[in-house]
């Protein structure tokens, strides 16, 4: 049956096909001897997202990233990268740029010569490699130090060079494992700018980091890991909205806390304001409860959570 015949039969437009996610893992697990690094994770990374991979030290972020990139074989489960899996997965790799722990550069070559060697292995590049190499060095703020030996680079300069390697050609997916590691504030801003440029160009970005304010500034999605398991994943704005709190100004804060707690809400005092954590009570419920208790309400404000607070709640609850 053709699409037109099908449309005629059902009398309406066919639904659009779901876009292929940039990456998808199902029940993925990785053990190193007795250590369970990743413990059965299901995760989908939508095309075009900037996903922050978060979690305490040793929670499995790097291992999960390495499995996504085909650098480590899962002990169990399924990995799909840009629509390909199994023996087909490596065919997606030319569309993927990656900065994963300690890029192996040659200490006695300059940053630029190192990058020319990387560019020579890029299947998408041929002919004169100097143009793309110089553009990538410029983009990561390393043009001035490009002719210095890699051996003399600071940690942050090495990170910048690794990032330049991931940006040599346009990619569908860029994976950055702790890209701000060792970077000064200007370097952190550069990474933020590069990620924003990639996002604007429609590139999917996966970024692991411990800098929650940075992640909050650049990411559209997050996945939070702890001890090899996924605690939560999804759109960042939705997760932060869900954790929003109400901040209430009244003429009797202590009385307001008592009245709100009587409804089962976990209200508490923060200086002179009353805070009602995200939950069943909406502003009209709060106002009604307080008015019934004879307490004057001056203001009810919804304050969206910060990622730092969401992260602390999730990881502490799970401990
Ligand atoms: N090659 C390996 N051999 C043995 N154990 C490993 C190996 N790689 C990782 N692990 C262990 O797997 C667990 C997860 O490590 P992983 O590096 O994935 O965590 P992470 O979340 O990236 O940590 P960090 O934030 O410190 O970089 C840790 O207990 C780690 O010691």
UniProtKB/TrEMBL annotation:
Coiled coil: none
UniProt-listed InterPro entries: AAA+_ATPase, ABC_transporter-like_ATP-bd, ABC_transporter-like_CS, P-loop_NTPase
Record's keyword terms, sorted: ATP-binding, Nucleotide-binding, Transport
SMART domains recorded: AAA
Keyword Ribosomal protein: no
Residue span(s) of domain ABC transporter: 23-252
GO molecular function, one term: ATP binding
KW Transport (keyword) present: yes
Domain of life: Bacteria
A Pfam family reported for this protein in Swiss-Prot or TrEMBL: ABC_tran
Entry's family note: Belongs to the ABC transporter superfamily.
Protein's UniProt name: ABC transporter ATP-binding protein
Organism listed in the record: Actinomycetospora atypica
